[in-house]
Amino acid sequence: MKAISRRKFVQTSVKIGAAALLPSVLRAETPAAAGEKLVGLQIGAISFVDEGINQVLDNIQERGQVNTLFLATFTYDTGIGGRQLPGYPFPDHGKQEYLDFRGGNFATPHAQFYKNTILKNTKAPDHGDWDMLAAVLPEAKKRGLKTYVFNQDSFTWHKDTPHIAELQETGIYGQHIESCCDLNPDYINFVSGMTKDICSSYDIDGLMWSSERQGPFNNAIQPFKGERPTNRITCFCKHHRKAAKERGIDVERALEGYRKLVDFSRASTQGERPVDGYFSSFWRILTDYPEILAYEKLWTEGNHATYANVYHSAKEAKPSIQAGFHIWHSNSLSPFTKAEMPYERLAYADFIKPVVYNIVGGSRYAGYINAAASTVFRDVPAEEYLRLNNHLMNYGDMSLKDLGKDGMPEEYVTLETKRALDSVKGKTKIYTGLDIDIPAKPENKQTSPEDVYRSTMNALKAGAEGVIFSRKYSEMKLPNIAGGGKAIKDFYAGK
Ligand SMILES: [Zn+2]
Question: Which of 127, 274, 371, 484 lies 20 to 30 Å (CA to CA) from residue 135?
């Protein structure tokens, strides 16, 4: 493929207009043989319970050309495991009733895998003893569908899960925070045990791990009002303190620095402009307290160690398993997140799913811009900050007021798929994560079949080894799934 500067490509595309076809230079040179690309779709247990296994599989195979299931097996997240978010309309299938989602493990935990952790039983109570993997796997196999498990690290664990509090994090005021600590031995052994349990107890083809979390630095610069930030600025538990000391980090200085950063963010959110301006005051805190970034790195490496733990535990249980990672949306919205989550450092995995949700992406990106322009970059008008951030992210021009209703420009899928591919240099496969019907406010962009067609086609033509339709079947309209399916067929037909 002939090289083309991405910035030049963006500029060209923007001039041509959002609906323009991609330049032929970005198309795959030869269409892959039929069936080569992974076409995944994420599904929660509730859909099989509501509609029956065969009905669900018929719908996604016929309409979406799906060849790989991503079953939300361990999750506490309504957005992944629940039916529909309260207040949003239901799609054209499934039960039309809001659900009190509980979550946990939708397979069956086997006791021998949890000997080294106090967290013994996380069986989801939602459907009694029903085991999604035991029920779905035989039907999937009959149809030639591959089955990957989708497990989520979560910050919404149920309070009534026995011993869960002992695994969780400590904030900068010594307060309890409801997200698990990556350095806590009971958490480490739980993650390893659960991964081995699922990979050896069921004949699955793959496993995808998701951890939509970030370190204390990125949480501390978020806007907030009131006394204390609601974001998780963690972790100062005994395990993290010990690890910090081993690195020569002065924990008390780190704490002091983080509290100053939080005070800065609160005052900035309220428009109390420091005499030297927002950015210099922010930067001064960082230079006064280098422990802030040292502690951020400590947290991030602990979090990445959990990714590695999942990968190695899966491989130990079953070497042929395809183990990979879902990488959250922030990675293509925030230059700070992008810096700390480089794809090449995760390229030991068998695949990476970069979240490139362009339809809901517009309102999410606007949210990020408005947040950054409320604290560190408050001296920059938000529209201008968007332009600056677009340069940092290598995107073309956009309008802040239109982002929500327009979504991200369609070349975003191409650019971010290409960036992921260029980062990993063939060491791992890239399965672009695409959104279908993630609930959006009425004034914001809603999904259409044409949207899904274009995002799917753009990801494949950019060279992705596959696509994963997200977030879950129970929120997707069937014609929109079919839009993705049509793109798959047209791609193989060379269109
Ligand atoms: Zn900790």
Answer: 484
